[in-house]
Amino acid sequence: MKRFILYILCWMGWFVLSAGNDYSRFLHHLPFDMPQLQLPDIPGNRISLTEYGGVGDGITLNTECFREAIEHLSAKGGGTLVVPTGIWLTGPIRLKSHIELHLEKNALLIFTSDFWSYPSRSTFFTEVFYRQLQSPISAYNESDIAITGEGVIDGSGQDWRPVRKNKVTVDEWEHLQRKSGVLNDAGTIWYPMADDVQRYARREENIIHKYNTPDEWVRLKDYVRPELMHLYHCERVLLQGVTFQNSPFWNLHPELCKHLIVDGVCVRNPWNSQNGDGLDIESCQNVLVVQSTFDVGDDAVCIKSGRNEAGRLRGMPAKNVVVEDCTVFHGHGGFVVGSEMSGGVHSILVRNCKFLNTDTGLRFKSNRQRGGHVSDIYIQNVYMCGIAAEPILFDMYYQGKSAVEAMEDALKGSMETIPPVTEKTPKFDHIHISDVHCYQAGRALLFDGLPEQNISDITLRNVTIHAVEGGVFSECTAVRMEGVTIQTNDSVPLKVYNSKRLTGNRVICNGDRIAKNIWVKGNRNEGVTINDIALCERESDLWKYCGQVAGFIQTTSFRNQDYVISHYGAQKNQNITESLKAAIQACHTDGGGRVVIPKGEYYTAAIHLLSNVNLHLEKGAVLRFLTSPEDYLPVVVSRWEGVDCRTLSPLIYANGQTNVAITGAGTLDGQASRDNWWSWKGRKSSSEQNTEAKVGKDKLLWMEQNRISLDERIFSVNDKLRPPFIQFYRCNRVLVEGVTIIRSPFWMLHPLLSKNVIVRGVKFDSHGPNNDGCDPESCENVLIESCDFNNGDDCVAIKSGKNNDGRTWNLPSRNIIVRNCIMRDGHAGVAVGSEISGSCYDVWVRDCVMDSPSMDRPLRIKSNALRGGVVDGFYARDIRIGECKQAVLRLELQYERVQSGPYNPVFRNIYLENVTCKKSSYGILIEGFEDRISIFNVRLKNCRLKGIQTPELNKIVGAEKVEFVNTTFNNKSIE
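Now predict its structure.
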């Protein structure tokens, strides 16, 4: 009787499974043709695991119980295996056709962490030997299978996965080290097994090259982690209601399956789990994913179709996939296509989903090895918030980094030598994104295509994004925006590089419908139109953009209230350090204003400015700085020649302040001389022995090379690192205007990691060692105008960090304008580098006079293969040079005679127009590498250079596309 009742209940359950789950409602109004989904055919046989000796105590291993129960059901034609309430420990489970695994509420199925319980499987594909452990749940070439219920399936992934030190707390890291396991040589990754064999395996790809027999390979099995569930070449599959969590590798991996339904499941992995994908749908067709939640350590829902040549030869695309009513709480990407998409991806619909606190939202990724065609993708009604990087990302240069790690590593497609299109070239087109909204993202969007095969035919309709940085389109064709709103802190909310037929209607950026704040750059743009305004870069447009940038720079504004230092006890010819400190604090506390230094001479130690404070020197006021190094303690966070450290305070310093200024007609006197600060530089003796006091410098460089933390890079008086005169560190809205600066210990004005900086009408006069005038470093939106430079080193030197530190920060200097200035003396008038490891984009120099027999090079860009960095966009116009010592323009890739190194610097798009010179040794010196091209697009137009002394007018090495247009050297036309 009991068996009869059980049979009736099973039959009723099958009826509900077959008829009650009407998934046709999710297939209405699809933008592509898709057949009706077929549910699995599960017979009415129903058994409990306990009938085959199963014990749910969390101790007994039930592997054989599961195997026997599944074999019994299979022999009877199929049915349902019920896992009751309890904790069921087991080894791998292999499902068979017409079988449903049903977990009752409070059933917890845990897979053993005994690695030897999981046999290996292998396949040969395109002569690549591929090994993987059997997944905890698997099915191969089966049909009509289901996993249902309200229970939890746990893969014990904590005993399989490596853990990176930077992804756990200090306590968690110490706990891991107390367990069995091993650290890598660098001490940054913990592996669960105390064996060093992993160095022979390419773990990320799970492809073993050194071991070809099972006996050899068995030594590597600990490092080839299985997916929690792998369904291969199966048809009619249902996953419903169950929680899948804590996988060793990817969580759910259906491959080459048809008629797959994922309904109401919960997929969980720790946020920091290595390769902890949620659902990876590979080369599957007719798939529905609905009403499910994902909280994982890598991509949440990911569409794949094979990798590189193997995927292309297999030629099985992912096709007809609908993802609806799903929520992603964490993951590298909410919905992802790629990067293993070599077999193609077509006819995908994602709608009515939410992505919360993911690294990216919609993520499309590939690279030049993948090949494959992705088309007919439809995204509708997606809502996001707290996206760390981009809510919409197309990355055709994917190399395995997470989106956050790669966030600043974009726009690599602006190369000058474009490779041909081959079967390895990926193609993305016909992608339609509508009604997508995001609140709080790192960058609005990034479309980073390939120059040889643009991302094409993309529609963005009714999209709103709130982000810190603006959006970027690079190497795109036929992108259409309709009703797109971007609200960002970026002064340039949209940037377009080398794109064609990019159009926008009803596009609003930062509340403005006018396209003036949208950049279009590159020499391959065509038909870029936003809000009926044509924007397509021509050479003549570069200066139009320059004017726009100047208009974007946010200016300072101060309350109309003066704080005169005499009211705080300051007296002429006295040390007024404490009076200045009190006045600055009072001004800041009250909401801002001017701290006024009246006419007269005063002395002070270090000054630290605060937000909303304008330090104003009246005409006739001279503020002299004390020369005892102890007056510049305690140490502060800074950079010294591009390297991060804690060192003596600059004479005037601001850290993390907003709306700060130094103004007036007075003088700032650092009182540096050979008797104090300058002696720290050292001199060459008569025998030319270098006696430079550089112990501190050498120590700092050693720390940088060995990646010693900033907290340990402490440099005090005995280290003899001279401080800059004025430094604004991580500040926003800065003004320095009208003052005269003399006798600086080191660099004179050093805006660092700052934005919206204006330097206007300042007189720089100091001829000590390393006395650069103004050095914007890793800054954005800087205007230097109407200044007078008389310096012992470069007048203006633009930088972005040195070596490892510059590359780690990866914050380029960008949007730098130098205009209407006089450069009376200095090593260079305007230089970029050599500390340029973080790169530099878009420098404009115009209407400047440079004239000195000791000025080596009026215009100079310098780096080497230890520095690296990219300089893209240096534009000089209407420059009058009287006399210079060496060359009007020098591009130098072997600075300091460094001829080799691992970081290849690149210079491109260097344009000079209307430049005149009366006397020089060379016209231009372009000194690249003899064995490769790293300098691209140098153009001199309407230039007149006279009095060139050397017979060899130019020296050009390692450059491509150097052009002379209507340009004469010594009155002779240069072609």
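The CA atoms of residues 600 and 621 lie 5 Å apart.
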